[in-house]
């Protein structure tokens, strides 16, 4: 047998070579190898091309002709397994002349591979030929051809042609791989170039923003100017929240719906609880700007707040990088504002301490005038105290907010004053810039207190607030008396277990006796005045004491009192006579009536002590 190709085979080989060289796409080349090989070898009705996967150590089908591609692609042949595996291991073209040789060669197929092969080729071929594909001395795959017609058999000449085609296939695959690698290298370079360009753009943008923000800070523009600049630069809604989730600055082109604002505030509070130190992106149920980018201000364990960008879509990385730089500037500005606040608090605190000490001199009076305090004006004091707090680490922040809220609500065109924050309370010293009656001035302050309570109620700070109000006193020297009275009001609320209430020294009335007498003396007085009545009610239905309360509350009007407790007037009259008998008094006696009235007024506060 000559190992040279016939003229016809040479023409076929040239045709195959031309087809293989017409493309550089590796998948196209592999498919063309199979199609052209089947077309130029007469006995071939179908076949498969397998490439060796070094990681798996298996020959894997890459393309096929006239077989079930979905099934054959599942086959994984070990070297030496079946016809293709044997050709791979032998490193030479093998011919299986008849079905008996085919059956013998495929007898070692694994159960799984046999299943897939039978699904792909229901009937075994009558003959087969398998040629290895060599590249640089290494076998990289196998071309296997099958004949499904008994009259067509593969010949030795077919071995020569298939071997030549396999060589051409190796060259074409190598060329395609090199081209693919070059393409990938070019793509990688383009990607790296794009990344460098983006990073340079991000760096340039960040530096530009950082410089502009630094200039704003150096010129004392403050947080509002910083937030407005970020809005201008990004084109998105920008909101700044503090560590309590309170919005302290914002900038946006379109009005934000109240419900949307509440939802954004909730997200700000949640982000503070999570204590994340990197930016996060969430999609919220908002009408216009559902994408929220949340950036922390500060670092663990001290977070000053959060910066939130609301946009109609996810903001670009370049903007995120710039905003992260901005957060550093914002945190420094917030630290500066906190330092200014602390310094002002210290000055105000020293002034209040001097007032309480009573050591007034020309220097203090001069300082008072600088603070717009007229030494001869009228003065009134409020003390606002936190009763309880869910999150104690938020105490300083809440105190700061209470001071700021007090300054905003109380220190206005009609009132002047200073606010001093302490451990769990603030002292607010107010003076009236225009001379008004005490009645009007006190009414005005109580209205402002009501507004203050309403705003506190809307907050979610986990605390309740009690407020004590002193009386109005003339001259700055006597302002200390108003401070003491406001303090006594809070002491009164604390002593009798009351929280979240407002009480003024002026409205205390007879309850002031609680401050001026010992608890033991007051209990003795209560026992002498209405002790027998208390004891009587405790052993019976308990109707006399409430009847007495109603009678006194309605200014001794028996008809109104009876209606209030839903009894007949005659019933109330009988009960009042029974009270006189038990206490051995007469309610018509002014002195005895005064004692009973005082005792009834004090009883609600002392009954828990009794």
CATH class of the largest domain: Alpha Beta
The domain count comes to 4
Proportion of β residues? Answer: 15-25%
The tally of strands reads: 16
User: What general form does the structure show?
Assistant: elongated
What does this entry look like structurally?
The chain has 610 residues and is of the alpha+beta class. The chain folds into 4 domains: 7-181, GAF domain (Beta-Lactamase, 2-Layer Sandwich), CATH 3.30.450; 223-339, 2-Layer Sandwich (Beta-Lactamase), CATH 3.30.450.40; 358-510, 2-Layer Sandwich (Alpha-Beta Plaits), CATH 3.30.70; 517-606. Helix content is 55%, strand content 18%. The chain has helices at 7-20, 26-40, 69-72, 82-90, 99-105, 111-120, 156-218, 223-234, 258-274, 317-357, 362-370, 395-410, 438-458, 479-495, 505-508, 513-516, 519-539, 544-553, 558-564, 569-583, 590-606, and strands at 46-53, 58-65, 94-96, 127-135, 138-147, 237-242, 247-251, 280-283, 291-299, 302-311, 378-389, 415-421, 425-432, 463-469, 473-474, 502-504. The strands form 3 sheets. Strands 11, 12, 13, 14, 15 and 16 form a 6-stranded mixed β-sheet that branches. A hairpin with a 4-residue loop joins strand 6 and strand 7 (247-251). Helix 8 packs antiparallel against helix 10. The model has no long low-confidence stretch (mean pLDDT 82). Pfam families: GAF_2, GGDEF_2, HTH_30. Residues 25-183 form the GAF domain. It comes from Cytobacillus depressus.
């Amino acid at each position: 047998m000559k190992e040279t190709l016939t003229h016809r085979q040479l023409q076929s080989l040239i045709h195959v070579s031309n087809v293989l060289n017409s493309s550089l796409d590796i998948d196209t080349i592999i498919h063309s190898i199979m199609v052209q090989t089947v077309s130029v070898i007469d006995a071939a009705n179908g076949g498969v091309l397998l490439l060796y996967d070094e990681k798996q150590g298996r020959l894997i089908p890459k393309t096929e002709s006239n077989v079930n591609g979905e099934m054959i692609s599942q086959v994984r042949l070990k070297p030496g397994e079946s016809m293709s595996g044997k050709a791979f291991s032998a490193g030479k073209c093998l011919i299986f002349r008849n079905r008996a040789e085919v059956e013998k060669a495929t007898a070692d197929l694994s159960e799984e591979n046999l299943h897939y092969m039978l699904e792909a080729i229901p009937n075994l071929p009558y003959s087969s030929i398998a040629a290895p594909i060599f590249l640089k001395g290494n076998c990289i795959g196998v071309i296997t051809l099958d004949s499904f017609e008994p009259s067509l058999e593969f010949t030795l000449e077919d071995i020569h042609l298939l071997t030549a085609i396999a060589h051409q296939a190796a060259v074409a695959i190598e060329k395609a791989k090199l081209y693919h690698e070059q393409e990938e290298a070019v793509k990688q370079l383009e990607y790296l170039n794009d990344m460098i360009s983006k990073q340079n753009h991000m760096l340039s943008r960040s530096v530009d923003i950082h410089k502009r923000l630094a200039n704003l800070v150096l010129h004392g523009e403050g947080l509002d100017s910083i937030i407005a600049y970020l809005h201008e630069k990004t084109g998105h809604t920008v909101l700044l929240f503090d560590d309590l989730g309170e919005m302290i600055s914002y900038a946006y082109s379109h009005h934000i719906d109240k419900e949307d604002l509440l939802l954004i505030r909730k997200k700000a509070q949640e982000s503070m609880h999570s204590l994340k130190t990197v930016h996060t992106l969430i999609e919220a149920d908002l009408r216009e700007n559902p994408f929220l980018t949340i950036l922390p201000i500060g670092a663990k364990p001290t977070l000053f707040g959060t910066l939130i960008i609301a946009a109609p879509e996810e903001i670009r990385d370049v903007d995120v990088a710039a905003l992260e730089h901005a957060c550093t500037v914002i945190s420094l500005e917030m630290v500066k504002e906190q330092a200014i606040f602390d310094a002002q608090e210290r000055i105000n605190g020293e002034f209040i301490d001097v007032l309480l000490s009573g050591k007034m001199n020309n220097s203090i009076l001069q300082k008072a005038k600088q603070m717009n305090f007229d030494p001869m004006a009228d003065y009134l004091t409020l003390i606002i105290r936190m009763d309880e707090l869910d999150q104690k680490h938020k105490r300083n922040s809440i105190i700061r907010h209470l001071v700021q809220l007090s300054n905003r609500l109380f220190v206005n065109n009609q009132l002047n004053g200073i606010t001093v924050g302490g451990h769990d309370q603030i002292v607010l010293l107010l003076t009236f810039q225009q001379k008004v009656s005490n009645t009007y001035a006190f009414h005005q302050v109580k209205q402002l207190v009501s507004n203050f309570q309403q705003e506190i109620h809307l907050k979610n700070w986990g605390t309740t607030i009690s407020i004590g109000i002193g009386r109005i006193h003339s001259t700055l020297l006597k302002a200390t008396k108003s401070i003491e009275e406001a303090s006594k009001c809070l002491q009164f609320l604390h002593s009798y277990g009351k929280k979240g209430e407002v009480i003024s020294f002026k409205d205390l009335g007879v309850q002031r006796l609680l401050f001026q007498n010992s608890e033991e003396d007051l209990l003795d007085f209560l026992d002498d005045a209405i002790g027998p009545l208390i004891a009587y009610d405790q052993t019976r239905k308990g109707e006399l004491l409430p009847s007495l309360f109603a009678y006194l509350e309605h200014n001794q009007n028996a008809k109104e009192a009876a209606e209030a407790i839903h009894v007949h007037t005659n019933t109330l009259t009988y009960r009042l006579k029974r009270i006189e008998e038990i206490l051995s008094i007469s309610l018509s006696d002014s002195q005895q009536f005064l004692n009973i009235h005082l005792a009834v007024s004090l009883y609600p506060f002392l009954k828990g002590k009794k």
